[in-house]
Specification:
4-stranded antiparallel β-sheet; 1 helix; 2 domains; mainly beta; Immunoglobulin-like
Length: about 325
């Protein structure tokens, strides 16, 4: 009698487990995964050929970090290939290391309307995301295949790169905001504790409110930034370039400031400083205060910080 009851209970459990999407030896219960695959190649010599067995790869480990700081790690094999399973429905930063030392971030283009980013979104899907050969040079790894072109987040038949509203929330991708400037758009950011309480009150330039900063690069909290890395900012309005000065756009560390050569185009602004590079292993804070839109409306005052990498050999 006991044996019969155990068999019945086991049958019921397995039936419910199967109905909920569980599988023996598969992904975490109720949390399906999607493979991400790539090959790292050394771009220092200008060759993007896949490394042969026995050659040295530019990295030996790849690390994925989501917006909550959860990490997934995979080893890069002797022919420089890697594969690991990530949970879809999340955004990730991918970094590459060698011997425990930082080598590069994966740098992607999520759409033609946004800045380059070290963060990509992984949508649901049965097919693996094939990044192809990832050319590593100057602390950046650029994939042959953009992940956004392999995602269809809202299931409308258009890949996310070409879809102007890839999550189907009614907000154009180039209007999506990152309130804490950490690189994770608000819709994808599971930790917005650093966002101010007035984020919803700013409005936008078209409705007479403050202009918003939508995206920055380097992002807030980023580490291992190159010493001559250009600072880029994307706004929700066309910028009045006459309001961009060393006073209204400051890049500082302690009492020292970086001298910028400003370039602006419509809603994007950049600070180039090859003649005044960052110091190694130093935290810099960028402050925007006093910049205005062409309409005359002020841009919100905002600051963010990042830290530079070690001195390169």
């Amino acid at each position: 009698m006991k044996t019969g009851m155990i068999q019945i209970c086991l049958f019921v459990f397995l039936t419910l487990f199967s109905a909920c999407g569980g599988s023996a030896g598969g992904s975490e219960f109720g949390n399906p995964s999607r493979p991400v695959i790539g090959t790292v190649v050394d771009g220092g010599g200008g060759s993007a050929l896949k490394k042969e067995t026995g050659d040295s790869c530019p990295a030996d480990t790849v690390i994925a970090v989501d917006s909550l700081g959860n990490t997934t790690t995979a080893e890069i094999d002797s022919v420089c290939d890697f594969e690991f399973d990530l949970t879809p429905g999340k955004a990730y930063v991918l970094s590459f290391t060698r011997g425990g030392v930082f080598v590069a971030f994966l740098v992607v283009q999520n759409s033609s309307a946004t800045l380059e980013s070290t963060i990509f979104y992984l949508a649901d899907g049965e097919d693996p995301v094939h990044l192809g050969e990832i050319l590593i040079a100057d602390g950046k790894g650029r994939p042959a295949n953009e992940p956004a072109r392999q995602n269809d987040r809202d299931g409308n038949g258009r890949n996310d790169y070409d879809d102007d509203d890839d999550d189907g929330d009614g907000i154009s991708d180039d209007d999506e905001e990152d309130c804490d400037l950490d690189g994770f758009l608000d819709d994808d950011d599971e930790d917005q504790s650093d966002c101010g309480s007035d984020e919803e009150e700013d409005g936008d330039d078209e409705t007479g409110g403050e202009g918003d900063i939508l995206q920055v690069d380097p992002r807030n909290g980023e580490n291992n930034v190159n010493l001559t890395e250009e600072i880029e900012v994307r706004f929700d309005c066309t910028i009045d370039s006459s309001t961009v000065t060393a006073v209204t756009f400051r890049v500082e560390s302690g009492g020292d400031s970086i001298s910028c050569e400003f370039e602006s185009s419509d809603s994007e602004l950049s600070c180039e400083h090859e003649d005044d590079p960052f110091q190694a292993e130093t935290t810099y804070t960028v402050t925007v205060n006093g910049v205005a839109c062409e309409s005359g409306n002020p841009v919100e005052t905002k600051s963010w910080s990042f830290t530079t990498r070690e001195e390169e050999d």
